[in-house]
Amino acid sequence: MTAIPIPDPTDDAEAFFWNALRDGELRIQQCAACHTYRHPPRPTCAQCGSDEFSWTRAAGTGEVWSYTIVHPPTLAGFADRVPYGAVVVRLDEGVFLVSNVVDCPVDELAVGTRVELAPTRVAAGPETGDDVVLPLFRRARPG
Amino acid sequence: MTTTAAIAGIGQTRYARDMGRTEVDLACEAIRNACTDAGLAVADIDGIVSYHIEQVAEVELMTTLGIPELRYMARTPSGGGGAASLVGLAALAVTSGTAACVVVFRARNRSKQASYGADPNQGGRPWAKGGTRLRDSRQWHHPFGVASPAQEMALIARRHMHVYGTRAEHFGMQAVAQRFHASRNPDAIMREPVTLDDWAASRPIAEPIRLFDCSLENDGATAVLVTSLERARDLPRPAIPVLAQVQYGAPIHMDLAGFFATTPAYGERGGGAVAAGRRLFGLAGVIPADVDVALIVEPFTMAVPLALEQYGFCAMGEGGPFIESGATRWPDGALPVNTHGGSNGEAFVHGVNHLPEAVRQLRGTAANQVAGAELAFVCGAISDPSGAVLLGVDR
Questions:
Q1: How many domains does chain A have?
Q2: Which among A134, B6, B76, B87 is placed 20 to 30 Å from B350, CA to CA?
């Protein structure tokens, strides 16, 4: 099995994002001055220029903004999964994430599908023993 | 801005897979060919413009080719997004008097199993060499199995399809048109024309993108020489004036979260090219309908309808039907696009090979000549920081 690539951030903000997921929390930077959300982590607010922000816990709900069904060639660590779906999710807070929808057959992927966070621990591979918790999503349950 | 510059010469190597030559070797051949075409000496070059991802350094060309003095060096962000901007930057340097003869070039040794593949950005597929410890923007894509440009562009294309009803077949129709163009171009790698059925039978890469939508993985280099219109008039080839150039910043496909967030209505209202296109045509005092031939840099054919819409050749959302109408197909289309065969037909040189085709059209020497072509449009890939130029004929 080939290792999937995992984040190894050197930046404090990036590290915070990934560490929060280990507690099952999707935390997104929110500007303290104008309350605009932003992702990926950035040092200042593009809306108002403020450097002050908080890590707001996202509701974890959103919709599939776009999707693709991936065939070869792809990263070595994903070669045994093809075909698999990859999506862009728009969180209800208004930010976008690249992700996957777990347990969704590729022929059921659709733009506009409501999804909810499904933090998922993934092993990077036997050679390191490292793992990461990824902000994956699953289809939202009705009601 | 408008410019007083002109393209005086074009040069290229053979385009092929696995040529077994270094990128500097390829670059030197293309640049020498451009000088010969222009009737200028290599020693006349005093400026070099390339992509920021270019691996062949200015000083390496200086020493290898024997360029005595460089007065101007510039790089434009990213890859194929900057194809037209290379000429734009060269034209600005010439117009300002900073340099007199600027060469723009791109050299690639990027075959699938390239012999010079040790560096991440050289040889083979750079996206596949990201490693398993991610310390940059790749951390937001790669852990989810999104790494290749095809996978990223597929996510942009699918959104366009959702908003406008664009169909994957529209991308296929452009792929087929370009393969037809390539079949008549002796320099093209892909000489066999294909049908839409062939396209549909080609394997999916990242749906909705199929193999025949994709740029080729090949080696080769392309160069273009830019000098003043005044000087170009004294050279053997007809001068090709650079009428106007624009650039625009835009989010890039390698940061999809930023891409969709910065332009939340991307695909609905269009991207940065909309305003840039208006500036471009306004500067030159022409309208899109005046354009005789368009060279649209397309790492994947899905980029063609998006560029057609954003630059105003058709209404937003009408790029697919525009292609379906046959408008982009030579010889009968109202706006033949990528008449050399484009990135899926002639070769992939990060779009720089689209520049000489525009020049050939305006010289009247193209393999698929648009009758009486007097105005050519060239734009970089629209999913990057990008730009466009309008090229004309000297009256």
A1: 2
A2: B6
